[in-house]
Write a structure and sequence with these properties.
Number of strands: 0
Distance between the termini: 55 Å
Helix content: 55-70%
Number of domains: 1
Radius of gyration: 22 Å
CATH architecture: Up-down Bundle
Number of helices: 19
Strand content: under 5%
Structural class: mainly alpha
Order of helices and strands: HHHHHHHHHHHHHHHHHHH
CATH topology: Amino acid/polyamine transporter I
Length: 511
């Protein structure tokens, strides 16, 4: 792709935005056409879309699903899945596969809005009826906490791995990882680093899958784990962070919308559309047919990513059940990385130990960067969208219209766009300074990351229902069908049940 991708899985183009950074951005209502009658006034079909791929040409659009999978599983899954496997064996295998199936539906729906409209899902949330931008506030506030805990926990885990092999303690190396990530995101150099990290992670995790295949014993426990059931004495607070980090957390679902736009599905963003991406066809039928084909391609890509990620996460469950469980080891505390290395050192000795250390540093180090970049850019988009009314787009930028926003980015040089300035600001504070303070006072990666995973699980129902509400208002012929609506409702109810169970357990109501 010619456009710069800040993240192979979650990133967006450096200059791409949903936020009205410049006067050159297309107004929302400029895309409205008389023939789009019946469509919500603030949501319209994209004007331009290239011809969808056919035949073998689809392969280049399916392949990126593998890279999405690598970034998705490189978050909490590497930490929490072996813990669950060690504690409960294969008894929750059905839950893992069920969440993965629901995740395919959820990320596909997150991508739908970007493909149909050329705008990101956060932009879509700003169009929901009710108090101005209420949905954005309900994304912004919880995710500030999730970002601090998620980035802090991942950095502490990578720091734990480095500290186990190098001079210096967990605190030192955790802060080094945090600082290096912030510097990379702020300097705009994340695109190159992420591509290298993801390729290396693909190799290292492939080795992990091979190890799981080598130690797996197809006994009755594994078969029984495919049948829904609840283990005796299951700890809701123990498994909730795991559920929230399987493949993609609540914000990871939103980021898939960014990812589809950055990869160019349907033609990328409306702001980036150009004459070489197809003629501006005023025929609704022609545009609808073309975009529908892009949706099918995107859906297949999402499925490939989910299947790949599920195989990887299942492998970590196997390693936890087969290697850690019999030894009674549940990775936790500041030595969690040392305990995780047993997953491969028990298979391949010293070589396996170093492979697992490298996997933690490369795969999770890449995830630190992806999360710092993704959250910072998302928060920048939200801040620039918050002052806007549903139909305000184009003309003066929000910075020119709102004094408080101008003061917020007053430190930037004239050559720097407001969105970039806000991204740097959030990278330095929410994904840098504050997580550093959390690590200083808490240090335990499991405790820190558990907070992020719990927030993700509790927050997912809102993301699901808000996404469904937005997609039910896109043009006719491109809206989700009733089967998809039913699956989304099921996903929302599923996560809601676990959220209720968590609060009930927290209040001592589960006994």
């Amino acid at each position: 792709m010619a456009r710069h991708e800040v993240s192979e899985a979650y990133g967006v183009s450096k200059d791409q935005g949903v936020s009205g950074d410049t006067q050159a951005q297309a107004p929302r209502d400029s895309q409205e056409k008389p023939e789009d009658a019946g469509t919500d006034a603030s949501i319209s079909l994209r004007e331009r879309s290239p011809e969808p791929p056919t035949g073998l040409g689809r392969l280049r659009w399916w392949g990126p699903g593998l890279l999405w999978a690598m970034s998705a599983v490189g978050s909490g899954s590497v930490l929490f899945t072996p813990r669950v496997g060690s504690e409960y064996g294969y008894s929750l295998l059905w839950l893992l596969w069920g969440v993965a199936l629901l995740m395919w539906v959820m990320i596909r729906e997150a991508g739908r809005f970007a493909v149909v409209t050329g705008r990101t899902l956060l932009d879509g949330y700003s169009t929901l009826p009710g108090p101005r931008n209420w949905a954005l506030w309900l994304v912004f506030v919880p995710q500030l906490l999730a970002a601090v805990a998620g980035v802090g926990g991942l950095s502490a885990l990578v720091g734990s791995a480095l500290a186990s092999e190098l001079p210096g303690g967990l605190l030192l190396w955790s802060l080094v990882v945090l600082g290096a990530g912030v510097a990379t995101v702020a300097s705009g150099g994340y695109g190159t680093v992420s591509r290298v990290a993801l390729v290396l992670a693909l190799v290292l995790v492939s080795i992990t899958v091979a190890a799981a295949a080598g130690v797996f014993e197809a006994d009755g426990d594994a078969v029984a784990g495919m049948v829904p059931g609840v283990p005796d004495g299951v700890d809701v607070q123990f498994i909730l962070p795991w559920i929230g980090t399987i493949l993609a957390g609540s914000m990871g679902i939103v980021w898939f919308s960014y990812w589809t736009a950055a990869r160019g599905f349907g033609g990328g963003t409306a702001e980036e559309a150009s004459d070489d991406e197809g003629p501006a066809d005023r025929s609704v039928e022609a545009r609808t047919e073309r975009v529908a084909a892009w949706l099918r391609t995107m859906s297949t890509t999402a499925a490939i990513g989910v299947v790949t990620g599920t195989v990887i996460i299942t492998s970590f469950l196997v390693l936890g059940a087969e290697l850690l469980g019999p030894e009674g080891i549940v990775p936790s505390g500041t030595d969690v990385a040392d305990q995780l290395t047993l997953l491969l050192s028990d298979v391949w000795g010293e070589v396996g130990h170093w492979i697992m250390v490298a996997a933690i540093v490369v795969a999770l180090g890449g995830s630190v960067l992806a999360n710092q970049d993704g959250w910072s850019r998302s928060f920048a988009d939200i801040v620039l969208l918050l002052p806007l009314r549903p139909h305000e787009r184009g003309g003066e930028s929000p910075v020119e219209r709102h004094r408080w926003l101008a003061r917020l980015v007053s430190w930037r040089p004239d050559s720097m766009r407001p969105r970039q300035a806000l991204t740097i600001m959030f990278a330095l504070t929410v994904t840098g300074l504050v997580p550093a303070l959390v690590i200083v006072f808490v240090r335990d990666p499991v405790v820190i990351m558990s907070v992020s995973g719990i927030i993700a699980t509790i927050h997912t129902p809102f993301i699901v229902f808000a996404t469904l509400a937005v997609n039910r208002r896109v043009p006719e012929g491109l809206r989700p069908g009733w089967a998809t609506v039913g699956a989304m409702v099921l996903a929302g109810v599923f996560y809601s049940v676990f959220a209720v169970l968590y609060f009930a357990d927290l209040g001592g109501l589960l006994g």
